[in-house]
Amino acid sequence: HHGEGEVDELREEFRRLLSFDYEIDRKLFFDLGDDGVAEDAYNKAVAYYERKRRALAVPFFNSMKTVLESDVENKPERAFIDFSDGHRKLRTVVRIEDVVQSEGQEINDCLERTAMLSLIDEHWTEHLRSLDEVKEGIGLRAYGQRDPLVEYKMEAFRLFSEVIDQIGEDVVTFVFRAGPLVERRGNGSVGQRSRMDRSRATARHQSAAASFGVVGSRNGGAQRDPSAKRKPVLVGEHVGRNSSCPCGSGKKYKHCHGRT
């Protein structure tokens, strides 16, 4: 880091990728050096994410515990919960009993698993297309006295390394930024699905009361947004990734609502 602008650039990168305000004194920034800043940023990002996990787990734990302990017949075993980071939407499917037993942490674990599988699927398809494009033009390199087979292997390895890095970055970005979609109801209007306000997840991330874009429950947790109410979609059967999507589109679930 060679200029004061580096501090602002680093903070902006954290906000863009992780919706996380990285706070560091400018003097400390230059005193720590690259390795010290990297360690400090990592520790603060991990602490922020742990708070976000807790803020997300508590309201879902309370609401699903109520469902599990209710006297209603034919209680659902699973629930659909949609998440969005403002760019893509993913649907997670959780067992209500697992959510209660884990005190809500299964919500976070399921979000991480779903994000990883979905983004691997998305990027791997693009990677295969890129390899096909390389194959089509690799023979021309023979005119430059280069072995096409060796060139293809080198190019394929470079593309593979890039896609692995991109998958990792996109998964981390999504789980940091994503919030559950909620039903937002107006006066006499049909409920509209809307992503929870992310500003509360970043404005005061050092405060224990930060809501991380999560609406609290009646039994505690983050403060409730009076204009929003979470309503997970309860279902009775698990939908496999290769099964037909329940929306009736005829597509596989992983290519429809199980993706974006």
Can you tell me about this structure?
With 260 residues, this protein is α+β, with helices and mostly antiparallel strands. The protein has one domain (5-255). Helix content is 51%, strand content 10%. The chain contains 6 helices and 5 strands; from the N terminus they run ααββαααββαβ. Strands 1, 2, 3, 4 and 5 form a 5-stranded antiparallel β-sheet that branches. The longest helix has 44 residues, at 26-69. It is flat, with a radius of gyration of 22 Å. Residues 187-211, 213-231 and 233-237 have low confidence and may be disordered.
Quick description:
This protein is an alpha+beta fold and 260 residues long. The chain has 6 helices and 5 strands, in the order ααββαααββαβ.
Q: What string, H for helix and E for strand, traces the elements in order?
A: HHEEHHHEEHE
Shape: flat
- Give the biggest beta sheet: 5 strands, antiparallel
Structural class, from secondary structure content?
alpha+beta
Helical segment count: 6
Number of domains: 1
Poorly predicted sequence stretches spanning 5 or more consecutive residues = 187-211, 213-231, 233-237
Rg calc:
22 Å
Q: Roughly what percent helix?
A: 40-55%
Terminus-to-terminus distance: 38 Å
Report the average pLDDT across residues: 77
- Quaternary structure annotation: single chain
Beta-strand residue percentage: 5-15%
- DSSP summary, beta strand count: 5
